[in-house]
Amino acid sequence: MHNSRQQTVYLAVTRRMAPSAHILAYFIDYTGELVADVIHFHVNITSDTVALNLTINQRKDFTGETVELLAYGPPQARVAFAGTEYAQYQLYGGNDLLEMDVCNHYFIIQINFPN
After folding, report:
1. CA–CA gap between residue 40 and residue 106 (Å, rounded)
2. In the 3-class helix/strand/coil scheme, how is the chain assigned residue by residue?
3. Would you state the pLDDT for residue 49?
4. Which of helix, strand or coil describes residue 72?
5. What is the pTM assigned to this prediction?
6. Per-residue pLDDT for 33 more than 90?
7. 17-51 as b/e, with b when 16 or more CB fall inside 10 Å?
8. Residue 75: CB partners within 8 Å, gap ≥ 6?
9. Residue 2 backbone phi and psi in degrees, to 5
10. CA gyration radius, the chain
11. Is the pLDDT of residue 92 over 60?
């Protein structure tokens, strides 16, 4: 094992590592020089799927101008709704908020403003 140039290490990823984590590997060679490398990676905690029951009530106020969305699921399930006008939705203006954009933003904040 000492003559091996490659080593495999298994790492358990947990929710506490979100939104990003870092692995620092280092060693001191025979001359006393410190050799180090680091890898940064995103931790996706939104991949858990939960079965929800969604009910749409289009006649909440009897005028038909409001819609009520009711989501039923297991305790501690996270549910979010986002809405926009249909005309704006048809424009596809490139204003989409992607999950990777959010992760990158949190990563930049974490690097620039450590605890």
Report:
1. 13
2. CCCCCCCCCCCCCCHHHCCEEEEEEEEECCCCCEEEEEEEEECCCCCCCCCCEEEEECCCCCCCCCCEEEEECCCCCCCCCCCCCHHHHHHCCCCCCCHHHHHHHHHHHHHHCCC
3. 73
4. strand
5. 0.40
6. yes
7. eebbbeeeeeeeeeeeeeeeeeeeebeeeeeeeee
8. none
9. -70, -25
10. 23
11. yes
What residue type is 18 in one-letter code? A
User: Tell me, what amino acid is at 32?
Assistant: G
Q: How far is CA 45 from CA 19, 22, 32, in A?
A: 8, 16, 40
Locate 100 and state its tokens: 């990777």
Q: Is the pLDDT of residue 71 over 80?
A: yes
Sequence length of the chain is: 115
